[in-house]
Amino acid sequence: MALILKDGSVFLHIPKTGGSFVSTALTQLGLVKREFTKKHADVDRFINKSVAKKLPPRPFMFCFVRNPLKWYESWWKYNNTFGDWPTWGSASSGDAGWHPQNILNGCGDTDFSQFVRNVLKRRPGYVSEMYGWYVRPDVGFVGKNENLIEDLVTVLRMRELDFDEDKLRSMAKVGVAPGEERINWSDDLRREVIRLEYPAFVRYGYPTE
């Protein structure tokens, strides 16, 4: 769920960016006022809901991103845990069946490189596009999965929220895709993904070398 915090701040959960940990941490720290709408609601699906309209006109919103290459790896590992890849949402159901990965239905493959090629053919630059659904000008803070706890501490301090920092720093990881094996990208495929996802690499400061 998107989470509304006690000070009216809003956490938007981009899939596979550490949002499950953030949601769990915010809940265990006693900072959540209520859950709201769909788990992965983006800005449009948040601000158009009646509950959001009861908040200040421009609530402080924050989210997290990750290196696009690692996003592809994480999504592939996660879906392979199911055996047959699930169907995420339904394009024919409007907002009721919406899921940010609905576009990728049918792209799954047990071979990582083939999965990535399927996505590049279906929706080139998908991760950059998806991040753009969440990171709008009225989003006040964008943290990184690679610096998850430090960035969460930073945004909570920005909001002057009272929380137990030691408890936060001691929390276990949540929602980590199993499979510790290193994924070896072919040079050509890696270059192509970086080329197509260049907006995300540049915008969020990820290295392209």
UniProtKB/TrEMBL annotation:
Protein name from the UniProt record: Sulfotransferase family protein
Taxon lineage: Bacteria, Pseudomonadati, Pseudomonadota, Alphaproteobacteria, Hyphomicrobiales
